[in-house]
Amino acid sequence: MAPPFTRRTLLRSAMLAAAVPALSGTAVGGASASALPPPDAWSLQPFPLEDVALGPGVFAAKRQLMLDHARGYDVNRLLQVFRANAGLSTLGAVAPGGWEGLDGEANGNLRGHYTGHFLTMLAQAYASTGDRVFADRIRTSVDALTEVREALRHDPAVLTVDGRFGTAVENVRGSHRYVDLPSGVLDGAAEVTLAAWVKPTHDAAWTRILDFGDDTTRYLYLAARNANGVPRFAITRGGAGGEQGLDGTAALPLGRWSHLAVTLAGSVGTLYVDGTPVARNTAMSLTPAALGTLADHWLGRSHYASDPVFAGAFGGFDVWSRALSADEVTALQDGRAAGDLASYAFEETSGGTFADASGRALTATLRRTWGAPSHPGFLAAYPETQFILLESMTGSDYTKVWAPYYTAHKILRGLLDAHLATGDDRALDLASGMGDWMHSRLSRLPGATLQRMWGIFSSGEFGGIVEAVCDLHALSGRPEHLALARLFDLDRLIDACAANTDVLDGLHANQHIPIFTGLVRLYDATGEERYLSAARNFWGMVVPHRMYGIGGTSTGEFWKARDVVAGTIGATTAETCCAYNMLKLSRTLFFHEQDPAYMDYYERTLYNQVLGSKQDRPDAEKPLATYFIGLGPGHVRDYTPKQGTTCCEGTGMESATKYQDSVYFKAADGGALYVNLYSPSTLTWAEKGVTVAQRTDFGREQGSTLTVRGRTAAFALRLRVPAWATSGFRVTVNGRGVGGTAAPGSYFTVARTWRDGDVVRVATPFRLRVEKAPDDPSLQTLFYGPFHLVARDPSTEYLEFGLYRNAALSGDLLPSLTPVSGQPLHFTLDGTGFAPFHEGTEDPTHAYVRRVEPRVVFGNRDSGVANPARTHGVTLLDEVWAAAPFDGKPALVARVRATVDAWVARGLLGAADGERVVDTARGATYVR
């Protein structure tokens, strides 16, 4: 069931009901029983998701697709890897695979991260919609993770399943569990029979049914599968090269019980499968007695560290001090017979030990390969070993250690969001425990060790953990949590950026972007100026110097040199996680300094890369979100990247359930409301007792209408004037124009006492413009207002287009394109279709096109004169149109005259050609 409404929510609802008797279209978010206190350093504050309801439009449509995915996906699949790691029943769930599976990239060393993303998505979905299905899924997850943490704190306990005869013990894949037998189990036998009932559930090679030995030199083992996929028994005193062995002829079936027996007598060894002899070796001179006393006697674990632990069930294990006959082995298929050296039926239903029925009282113990129970607070989908190994690493190897603190961040963030959305204190307790565990682990390490760890590519990546730990500290107030956040300081990066020294070339982008959001939060908590300076300067190193037109950054996940954009374009540009994290950083910086550039960037990236990273079709199995967005010519977006459950699919789930988080901000003193984005939505501002309903079909409609309802309230309405709004920005209140200067890239203020029913109309005329790659100005992106337009064409070469041919006197290039009837934001040019980047299709696209203006043309009138260019690539037409807008045709002709005269004087254009250019400009007809 969903959590009950809290006193806070009930009081808020009662106040609004009294203040605004008939509010329609307000947010219906879930009961937020807790809230992060806004830092004192913030001059602006965000509104909770539940206070902003999305209206109809592209944002709501894409969010609905993700909400349906959140409803349809079985969270028990995500929890499978956690339960398996803790040795708990997985309830028959199948792990998601990909990065969340043991067979995924780097052995699944990042597993658990996706569950954190999913929890955040669920929390945001619940806050935004109030739909209890999301709260129920959060509760299921928190229930399971609470049980997992408790299990990890104790010795492993038996997991019982149906056996061949009665019950059996199961080793879930990923549980790292094995059975440890006492040292006297073989008793120096010269002859022996080893027999086991097993039901393997995975086909990995070299998983041991048993392995008795000291190391990788002296041992005997029975493997469920060798390299050829068949059972193998071997005994040696000289390692793998000295093995005397028996190999089966067929693979053991998965999910079915099989009986295996090995007999050794004299020089003869025999391997039986299901009572049938399948291998015989008459030259086996080694016996258990010849091996002497062995240190370890394991069921399910190998002495070779790289071999997987047995996954499946044990239904019995027996050892005899003689070689059973073939008939006796066959008889074991029909019932149990106790070995005289050891006999385990595995009928226990609790605890972690197994009784020996041989009469020798050799009690066996269930253990984990990674040793003792985990430390207090530890919670993960894998053992503590990755964290331990990282502390001694000097170089990256993600097949051994893949960003354990990054995964810890995702889980921690998901738990905090779950608590904030539902008020479940268990989620906060789990998060606080993780913080305590990390502090206890990291605080004992020397500073030099921490600096080395955090500087290691991939293995040392820690994502946004500093921001999350600062949020944890804001809730807990415990000094250990703030101290923990500072233990992640990567001093050489912080100091360089604080000094405004650009050191980004060659760094992994997404490993470092979220660090700076954490630094801003550390500034909030400590007041240490270098944190804020480093974050501010870092942002300026990325925007615009390493930014693609859609707002994204990185190529092949890394940064290149400053202002190299065209030279980095390819199939692996613009990792989606980078866009997600740059948006978080931008809004956090904006809370401190209301530089409109932050919100201009936010709009660019949200309206283009983030929206475009979500495919426009439903899928219950996958979120359909991109990893890379290739910006090379003819690229087709991949919405099912890599093996699945990747970081970018995780942030894609989050992005699509919080589109409204930055539409509105409020001044910390309540004196102003910032409208940052023109997006259909309704804000409920409880403190003022008002709602602000924004109605727009932005993209189709070049403007927005805001209606204030509720109590009379005085505040300044600050409307963002986008940097692209160079064709005017007009504001009316109740039909009357509002005076003042609305400079592009600023905020326009309307300060008044607002009354119920006041209507504000904002007009933001679009124009078509281009943005040039800094290292190749001929490579350009097209924008119509805030929307990036892509050409749709399968060619893998850059398409060439001219745009000046029918440019308007305003400088708007749109008249050179032809609108597509009935499809807003769709155009054609020279037979090629252009569409908004945010449409999540699988069409081959060209985000960048080659700008080619071979001849001087005005108003579709061709002068016949070649368009000359200077050595740095600026053409005659570039210089003419750089002076736009023009008040009228005479002003344009005058500009043409002056430009032509200058170029003729420099010998860049012949006099006769210059006159033809002027005549063409004078005779052309222009769009205003």
Write a structural description.
The chain has 928 residues and is α+β, with helices and mostly antiparallel strands. 30% of the residues lie in helices and 21% in strands. The chain has 22 helices and 39 strands. The strands form 6 sheets. Strands 29, 30, 31, 32, 33, 34, 35, 36 and 37 form a 9-stranded mixed beta sheet that branches. Strands 3, 4, 6, 11, 12, 13, 15 and 16 form an 8-stranded antiparallel beta sheet that branches. Helix 21 packs antiparallel against helix 22. The protein starts with 6 loop residues before the first helix and ends in a 5-residue tail after the last helix. The N terminus is likely disordered.
N-end to C-end Cα span:
62 Å
Structural class: alpha+beta
As a percent range, the share of strand residues is 15-25%
Specify Rg, calculated over alpha carbons: 34 Å
Write down how many β-strands occur, each being a DSSP E stretch of 2 or more residues. Answer: 39
Model regions low in confidence, pLDDT < 50 over at least 5 residues: 1-32
* Sheet having the most strands: 9 strands, mixed
Instruction: Specify the helix fraction band.
Output: 25-40%
Mean pLDDT, as a whole number? Answer: 95
Shape type: elongated
Please, how many helices?
Answer: 22
